[in-house]
Amino acid sequence: MSDIKLELRNLVKVFSNRPEPALTLLNQGLSKAEVQQRTGLSIGLAGVSAHFKKGEISCVMGLSGSGKSTLIRHINRLIDPTSGEVLLDGQNLLALDLEQLRQVRRHQISMVFQSFALLPQLTVFDNVAFGLQVRGEDKAQTREQVMHWLATVGLEKEAQRYPDELSGGMRQRVGLARALATDAEVLLMDEAFSALDPLTRYELQTQLQQLQANLGKTIIFVTHDVQEAFRLGHHILMLRDGQVEQAGTPQGLLDTPASDYVAQFVQRAQLPT
Asked: Domain ABC transporter spans what residues (predicted)?
């Protein structure tokens, strides 16, 4: 039985209704910059292949514009690729119809955003319950699940408050509880802690590590912070200009960087003790 939970195969994203000229040039081996210069088209991904193991935290790193957020949004098809495949447990998600895709999003993949993405008109309880209510879960079971996850993230006493009454760290905990409440096996986190102060950020990193160790979720965590990636990640995927620059363990990136770009990125990083 394979230990690969997610696999990306040669993902290309050209932001255009007529991507063929760019695809042709990319297939000829031209870089993202060269293709953009020749065609005037915006290239989000230029042939990304990667895999993510079950029960691990994988961190996707890179500078702004490297394709991190574009990549993670391909996993749950918030963005569809121009070409390539996204496999979840061996199933090609691009072959799913709209209803099948909805079921994947409701049951198998959850997402936590940098901007919290809470519904301001709903209480903390109702925000966490939202995904379960959309699925049509039993009310009593929903309440039990919501209160369990609010207690897990330390917010059970805030259930009837509204998002604008909470601190940034508390709001991000609500977002995390909402994602966990659906019991999805895969959790996508797009720079989820980057807007928080350093102390709150560290506390949430610790909580995420504990949750992952207890629950065995497969977590894809996007960050531009190398120290955060090295603290959280079992596996690192380093992107540059819409392509994979290097993939491996934090120790591997430190010991044998594949390029000057990687070496400069990780030079000040320290492995957690």
From this structure: 25-266
Residue 193's pLDDT band, with cuts at 50, 70 and 90, is confident
SS3 30: coil
Phi-psi region of 198 (alpha: psi -120 to 50; beta: other; left: phi over 0): alpha
CA distance 7 to 187: 15
Instruction: Please give the full DSSP string across 197-229, using - where no structure is assigned.
Output: -HHHHHHHHHHHHHHHHHH--EEEEE-S-HHHH
Give the separation between CA 86 and CA 54, rounded to whole angstroms: 15
For residue 198, give the nearest of 234, 225, 173, 237 by alpha carbon: 225
Cα distance between residue 245 and residue 258, in whole Å? 7
Token pair belonging to 264: 């400069």
Mean pLDDT of the region 1-13: 92
Average predicted confidence (pLDDT) for the chain: 92
